[in-house]
Design brief:
globular, Nuclear Transport Factor 2, Chain: A, about 240 residues, Glutaredoxin, disordered N terminus, five-stranded mixed β-sheet, 2 domains, four-stranded antiparallel β-sheet
Length: about 240
């Protein structure tokens, strides 16, 4: 290839890159405007190029949609990469969950620590009165013995101000939170107590992350595992998720 052709090729590559960058910027603006027309008070967390051409990936809290660069079309569904069978939509939502959970400090959690070496940590959105939440807690020692650290956040399904919400507050405000949690999970009414607490923020965070029922287990990488999972099955699942 002579020098003139090489220069033409390089110029073409720079032109294509610049065009793609410009189209991306234009696409983001068009998509943002289209979403605001569709839902005027929508809170857009991020807009970025989708894994397929002509569309942008838009994150609205726990909801993810794909919008065409011209803002004319919206796709609401799961994006699966057929070659690997990887759920690309869930991967994006998982990254958001992980980032949000990292902002919850240790002082805003009730922790049941792993015995010996900690192998995995899960954050469990729980409801004091949920049957399967109680079943999970009945086996908390087994999870801990397997090296699984369990951090509890509260998600009273009946909503803010409900009796389940009040129970969560009482557990949080107890002198020994872990003992109070275990007592409440056994069906005992916790001693009523009031103090500054994060229960409402727990509940709102759960809603933002797409929690609709309890227990809802979330890994540190942001994978949401809905429902009760027995200890022996959970450790296998966590090992599979952690595998490269």
């Amino acid at each position: 290839m002579n020098r003139k052709i090489v220069l033409l090729v390089i110029a073409s590559l720079f032109s294509t890159a610049a065009l793609a960058q410009n189209n991306g910027s234009a696409g983001e603006a068009a998509v943002r405007a289209a979403m605001q027309r569709l839902v005027p008070d929508v809170q857009i967390d991020s807009i970025k190029q989708a894994p397929f051409a002509g569309f942008m990936e838009v994150l609205l809290g726990a909801q993810l949609v794909y919008v065409s660069n011209d803002g004319k079309y919206l796709i609401d569904g799961q994006l699966i990469e057929m070659a690997t069978r990887k759920n690309l939509s869930e991967a994006s939502k998982g990254a958001v969950r992980s980032t949000r959970l990292q902002k919850v400090t240790d002082g805003e959690r009730i922790r049941f620590a792993a015995e010996g070496q900690k192998k995995h940590r899960i954050t469990v959105f729980t409801d004091i009165d949920c049957g399967y939440c109680r079943r999970l807690h009945d086996q908390i020692a087994e999870y801990n013995q397997l090296g699984i650290e369990v951090d509890y956040l509260f998600f009273p399904r009946a909503g803010l101000g409900s009796h389940s919400f009040d129970k969560a507050v009482s557990v949080w405000c107890a002198p020994d939170q872990n003992a109070a949690m275990t007592l409440a999970k056994s069906g005992e009414e916790p001693v009523a107590a009031q103090c500054d607490n994060p229960i409402e923020s727990h509940y709102n965070l759960g809603r933002e992350l797409g929690v609709t029922g309890t227990p809802a287990l979330v890994t540190d990488s942001g994978t949401l595992i809905p429902g009760y999972v027995p200890p022996a099955d959970l450790i296998v699942r966590l090992q599979q998720l952690a595998a490269p």
